[in-house]
Write a structure and sequence with these properties.
Elements (H helix, E strand, L loop, with lengths): L12 E6 L7 H13 L3 E4 L4 H4 L9 H12 L3 E5 L7 H6 L26 H18 L5 E5 L14 H15 L2 H8 L26 H29 L5 E2 L1 E3 L9 H5 L6 E3 L10 H15 L5 E5 L18 H11 L2 E6 L25 H15 L12 E4 L2 H7 L12 H13 L4 E4 L10 E4 L7 H12 L3 E4 L18 H4 L1 E6 L7 E3 L5 E3 L3 E5 L5 E5 L9 E6 L2 E4 L2 E2 L1 H15 L7 H4 L1 E7 L5 E7 L5 E2 L5 E2 L9 E2 L4 E5 L2 H4 L1
Bound molecules: beta-D-galactopyranose.
The site of beta-D-galactopyranose (GAL) has 11 residues, from loops.
Length: about 675
């Protein structure tokens, strides 16, 4: 795709969602003046403005948008202009009731919130395309335009629709996948429970049923739903490309909180500029720094290693968690640089000015309710200054020699009941391993199983229940070529149709499964060598003399059986290692595989990441997540201060050091 992958902004982007329609016009001039004071370079405009832009079908009111676009341009602020299709207005829903989504129980959801549209609705798609075209034609050449923002967080509220139009579209998708009903019956295993289909009209989305659905039907419905929404995105993108060629286009992902409704790997291939939203979860097994590192590494993976954009995060408390924690003073800069260190070419927030009304009135804004004579505003201004100083970092990339595999098909299949244990969550486990590797000081890429693994010294596979047959060969080749592979429990249990296919990793692992033996919540198992496991055990017997048993189950349902093995470059775990055991296991693997680790934040509190430019410049980000000041062995000029780095980081302090040629090596 020839469309540029970077916003048309000099240096790093800084700003947030801007919703001027929530404020009288006299506030706008003050907004622009304050944006200038804070060093804002980019705002996302019009994300929820459909009702204001098209108050009646075909009647566009662009005057207010013209005025604010001009005002922003005069202030030197660029615009990430939304296609405004994320929330159809009430008139639209009333006129096209069939465009409203229907849940699995047949309840049609109504307007009055947002994202009330069915992914397969023709009326919605056509309405969205008309609005996109009208906006593109009007603003394609506006000097403030830096990039297009299609829709907003697709599927954040409505990922699945079960209406008749969705059922029809699902059948079209299934016909394309299977060709005929015999193949569908075979793939779905409909010999079970008398589910055999004899006519396409019988095939339904997984609407409410007396008990469990057919799991392959559910899996295919998730695949279909992700594709259906992706078609909405590409329809808007193609209009933007044709009317405004050369302007970057994005839609914002949600890579932080375990969102798993869309196959982001498939989506990423269609998106010229990858951006994401990240919100720290107050009550989480991972610390805020670990959450940020995962989201950023995952987004970089989606961008294929290229820079990407943090499109939203919160300047303080959010409004949608059970208890919305305030962020400690001083953490705004450190959190923001957590993203920049890992490849974001900017720092954007939701939102510019905290709202006075509506469902998000208690969400923090860059301009808080308490106004600008506040520590909060001073932190915003300080962040703007820091990002100006970090301009040379824009475009730089991050190199990792360790990868962790994340696959949506597998997560979808594994997390759909019934399973041997509902405690065997997939996404959460991948994040747990990522956090452990982060604490140990590894730099990690999050990758799809189909990606080129050859550049990594080691690949972690914490949770890969579903593995398509082709994937087995890819893992075998990676190991044959000298890679180190770490396979977690309950791996490669099923094929792409979610049919049991347990034998396929036997050759790589050198053992075979006898029986799964899940553990009760809170139950632990001891392994020889002092390791502790929980959640899961499996009984296996070795089938290859080259397989080394590193540790065996010392108790529990698989007592005496192998629990940790190694065969050449392939390591395997038959249980979920408890935190300290997981870290000590990974430490051993990293040493054997030659993974470059620094003295990680788990022991020092200090996170280190290097971003490098094509011309060889390198910038070392140092983020002290600890409560104590600390000494750090690094030399060079700190871009944030312009002074030589003293070697000391304050508690919670940050530095970005331009490395000299010697230190890079
Ligand atoms: C995002 C969304 C924004 C806003 C924000 C609040 O999910 O894109 O519009 O709702 O959350 O945290």
């Amino acid at each position: 795709m020839s469309t540029p992958a970077a916003p048309r902004v000099n240096g790093l982007c800084f700003g947030g969602d801007y919703n001027p329609e929530q404020w009288p016009e006299h506030v706008w001039a003050e907004d622009v003046a304050l944006m200038r004071e804070a060093g804002v370079t980019l705002v996302s405009l019009g994300i929820f403005s459909w009702a204001w832009l098209e108050p009646a079908e075909g009647r566009y009111e662009f005057g207010w948008l013209d005025r604010i676009m001009d005002l922003l341009h005069e202030g030197g602020i660029k615009v990430d202009l939304a296609t405004a299709t994320a929330a159809p207005p009430p008139w639209f829903s009333l006129r096209y009731p069939e465009s409203l989504p229907v849940d699995a129980n047949g309840v049609r959801l109504i307007w009055g919130s947002r994202q009330a549209y069915c992914p397969s609705s023709v009326a919605y798609r056509e309405g969205a395309k008309r609005l996109t075209r009208a906006l593109a034609e009007r603003y394609a050449r506006h000097p403030a335009l830096a990039m297009w923002h299609v829709n907003n967080e697709y599927a954040c509220h409505v990922a699945f629709c079960y209406c008749d139009a969705s059922a029809a579209a699902f059948r079209v998708w299934l016909r394309a996948r299977y060709g005929d009903l015999d193949k569908l019956n075979e793939a779905w295993g409909t010999a079970f429970w008398s589910q055999r289909y004899t006519d396409w009209a019988e095939v339904m989305p997984p609407r409410a049923t007396p008990t469990w659905h057919n799991p392959t039907q559910v899996l295919d419905f998730k695949r279909f739903s992700s594709d259906a929404l992706l078609e909405l995105f590409t329809a808007e993108r193609d209009i933007l490309h044709s009317v405004a060629p050369g302007t970057p286009v994005t839609t914002n992902f949600m890579t932080g909180g375990g969102f798993d409704k869309l196959d982001y790997w498939a989506w990423a291939r269609e998106i010229p500029l990858i951006s994401t939203d990240h919100y720290v979860i107050g009550v989480s097994p991972q610390t805020p720094a670990e959450q940020i590192a995962f989201s950023a590494d995952f987004t970089r993976g989606l961008a294929g290693g290229a820079p990407w954009l943090l499109m939203e995060h919160s300047p303080g408390a959010v409004n949608w968690q059970p208890v919305n924690l305030a962020r400690e003073p001083g953490r705004m800069l450190r959190d923001a640089l957590g993203h920049v260190a890992r490849g974001s070419d900017g720092v954007m927030f939701f939102q510019w000015r905290a709202s006075r009304a509506g469902a998000e009135k208690w969400h923090a804004g860059m301009v808080p309710h308490a106004g600008i004579d506040t520590p909060h505003w001073r932190e915003v201004v300080g962040l703007g200054e820091a990002l100006r100083n970090l301009a040379p970092v824009a475009g730089c990339t991050v190199t990792a020699d360790l990868a962790i595999v994340l696959d949506f098909d597998s997560i979808w299949a594994q997390e759909a009941p019934p399973q041997p244990s509902r405690l065997m969550t997939a996404f959460a486990e991948i994040r747990r391993w990522h956090a452990a590797a982060w604490r140990l000081g590894a730099t990690i890429d999050v990758v799809s199983p189909g990606s080129d693994l050859s550049r990594y010294r080691a690949v972690l596979v914490p949770s890969l229940y579903l593995l398509a047959d082709g994937g087995v060969g890819a893992l075998e080749s990676y190991v044959e070529d000298g890679g180190t592979l770490v396979v977690g429990p309950y791996a490669a249990a099923v094929d792409e149709h979610d049919h049991v296919a347990l034998h396929r990793l036997n050759r790589l692992l050198g053992h075979r499964l006898l029986e799964f033996a899940p553990l009760l919540e809170g139950q632990t198992v001891s392994l020889s060598g002092g390791y502790t496991g929980h959640t899961w055990a499996e009984s296996r017997e070795t089938v290859d003399a080259a397989t080394e048993i590193i540790a065996s189950f010392a108790d529990g349902p698989a007592s005496g059986r192998p629990a940790m093995t190694r065969r050449g470059g392939v390591w395997w775990l038959g249980t979920r290692l408890a935190e300290p055991s997981l870290e000590s296991f990974l430490t051993g693997v990293f040493a054997q595989a030659g993974i470059s680790v620094y003295d990680g934040p788990g022991t020092t509190g200090v996170e280190r990441v290097i971003r490098q430019s094509a011309d060889g410049s390198a910038y070392l980000f140092l983020l002290n997540h600890g409560d104590d000041p600390t000494a750090v062995d690094a030399q060079g000029v700190d871009l944030l201060t312009g002074a030589t780095f003293t070697g000391h980081l304050a508690a919670g302090g940050v530095a970005v050091i331009r490395l000299t040629a010697e230190e890079k090596n």
